[in-house]
Amino acid sequence: MGRLPADPPASSSLSLHTLDNDDLPPPYTDEPEFPAAPAPQPAFQPLRLSDSAYHVPGAKSFTVCDARIVTYAPQLSNNSDELFRVIRRQMRLPLRPLLGVQGTHTESSNDGKKKTSNNVTDFSFQLDLAETMLRGWDEPLTLNWMETGVLKDGDEQKAFRGGILRSRRYKPRAARAKAISLDDSDAALLESEADVFEGEDSENAGLSEQEADLQMWCKRFCSDLAPVKSFTLHRELRGFDFKPMRNILASHIRSLNYQGTTNFWFKKGYSSVTIYSPHWINQLRTNKFVWWAVVLLQLWIITWPIIWLMEKRYEVARSQWNASLDPGSGSGLIKCYAQGHDETQLGEFWAPAVKQAAWSRRRGSDALLTRQDAERLKGMSNEQILRIQTCESEAERQRRERVHSGQGGFMDGVVGLVRGVSEASQDYRLGMGWGANT
């Protein structure tokens, strides 16, 4: 009887994709081949983050540049199950760290009577760093890169637990009235709360301990009869210092012979989600026109104390996203990063996209660079980065093909001449400098 062929050896490591037969390495080799060291790039490529993933029922239109997501949906203030589903989903999504880059210069003019100067913006855009410095929203095991927390009864942490001030324990309004009639005893408080949430343990049988605590707070919020109330989820960022990255990018922009002023700023998009009760006070307090009217007319002296006294705040849930973990000195461990590279290497990874965006004078409210923009320019030379078009049309690609194949017509030559003049002007700009004050 012939011997059956042996099964192929099992892979010793997990793979993010299935290998074809042609891709499998040989079973044995005398001299193993070591791949060349790759250029600085993310060690892990997470799933894409889209604004639609952050959708909250009833929320107004929002963009990644917004720090808060706000909604007044009535079902989120009355239906604890719906509120629980929304907050649990939002806790798994990261905040969006944004690094803004802006270049400006001053243009002065003198008409003989008056000297004027105008501040001109040469470029202004932002980098969405979430996918290149954070991880954990698409992994079952986050390895401490993402941590969530929900307050528990008896944890002695000061927080907004349904009152106007931070407190160390929850005091329901019904329980408070009953407790007063029984000489304000702690036993009465606990007994009343048990009556309100009777049967809660059986409902939480399929939930984790943290999810059960979150569901408990959602029930407390929805059962609160206060007309003005809010439930807020906070997202935090730890372990990231944007200054080394700023210095790297500033150096690359200067290599373009840019002579203007370069400014950087760092902010956090989607850093909180707030559910307001659909009361007219809550809707007016977040209206920009009303807010400015209150400030300019000095009405805040009256309105803000009223809101402070009326609002019952619930800020019991948070998620923390760690860009790096530092075990501290003396532990024998080194600092590690979520994406395998520090802030300096992150700056080098983004440098080609930043140089191309600055050179093409990219600006506007939609000037947001993503991980795909950085990966698209990875490995290109400096000349290729500066000459590439931000969005080359299909007609231009066809014209280039006709010219290269020798089938180009008269108009193709004219268009090529115009483009050649444009490229020559860009070379002049690179050699002589641009963005200087005049």
Query: Averaging pLDDT over every residue, what do you get?
Result: 78
Structural class: alpha/beta
Q: Based on DSSP secondary structure assignment, what is the total number of beta strands?
A: 12
Tell me the fraction of residues in β-strands, as a range. Answer: 15-25%
Q: Sheet bearing the most strands, described?
A: 6 strands, mixed
Task: Please report the number of helical segments.
Answer: 16
Overall geometry: globular
**Beginning-to-end CA distance, first to last residue:** 91 Å
What number of structural domains do the residues give? 2
What's the gyration radius in Å?
29 Å
Residue runs with pLDDT of under 50 for 5 or more positions: 1-43, 175-198
Helix content: 25-40%
Keywords: Membrane, Transmembrane, Transmembrane helix
Biased composition (Pro residues): 24-43
Transmembrane segments: 289-310
Region (Disordered): 1-44
Structural overview:
Strands 1, 4, 5, 6, 8 and 9 form a six-stranded mixed sheet that branches. This protein has two domains: 51-387, no CATH class; 395-432. It is α/β, with parallel strands linked by helices and 438 residues long. The protein is built from 16 helices and twelve strands. It is globular, with a radius of gyration of 29 Å.
